[in-house]
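Question (not urgent): is this output format expected?
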Amino acid sequence: MKIDLTGTTAGEINKALVEGRRAIGTPAVGMVLTLVIVTDEENAYDALRAANDASREHPSRTLVVIKRHARTLRDRTSSRLDAEVRVGADAGTGETVVVRLHGEVSDHADSVVLPLLLPDAPVVVWWPVAAPLDPAKDPLGALAQRRVTDTYAAEQPVRELAARAETYTPGDTDLSWTRITPWRSMLAAALDQVVCEVTGVEVEGEEFNPSCELLAMWLADRLAVPVKRTLSAGPGLTAVRMDTTCGPIVLDRADGSLATLSISGQPARAVALKRRDTAELIAEELRRLDPDDTYAAALRYGVERLAKAEDAVAGLAEVVAEDVAAEEAAVEQAAAENAVTEVVAEEAAAGEAAVEKPTPNSLARKAASK
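Got this back:
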């Protein structure tokens, strides 16, 4: 069931929700949270579809906030609120309200959303694109216990990660972090099977993929070893190689769905490691609303520190190579000097032998002297 409201208010939207529930025969509210999606017209459909799919696991009231950009000065100075209320089959297993803000009311979206929140229920705010630099200080983010962003949608994902680290507040999370949950689980399980010390790690993936950077920072933070970041054609993460004292451990996923786990001394095995869609990622994030301390630690490790550590490892390798080359040159020079010394000694010995060797004339002289 759909109810369209033009030039409405938050009170009218609440009345429409009650009428819609009565019309479909479900007056009771059985939702567990309020999910606020802040997006634009271009991405609203995909975000709402993902939220509806996730609502099968987490029945919720979904509020889609779309800020319409006015084209003229007259439109910018006037305010209007349009809404579309969906209940029943059109809203998954919960309720959906799509609100479009026109004019000055766009700057006060929190005042529109606040009366529509479910009472005594947690609030999650999700920005599919164009997330604020500090989600916790955003007016809508301040209403939520959980704030979900996606650095993959940013123009400069790696720089966005650095900004997220500076403004992190407990309750912040990112779908780029959620994407690597299966990778982290698989790598942790692989290390549990061996009693070895990890000496180095290599993470391979696409160039501008923040999930690759987050996985590298997580490994560097947890293992306290150098982590090398290498590039591949993708899709996404393609491989993680860990050097250990017992041999290499490799998790390789070349096709984006099926991976191969290789542990030294054990047969290689195939593991399911498919790339998940947005609905699965949102459903995972809604399972927990407490702060993610592991994400915070990985994020605060810093992409700059990761790059410095990689440069330091590369510099150390160059220094070691130069030392080895210098040592080899010194050995070669010493060998050459020894060879020259031996030749001189042989020539000197040969000269002395030539002087001491008796000749007929010397024998005659010696005989005459006697």
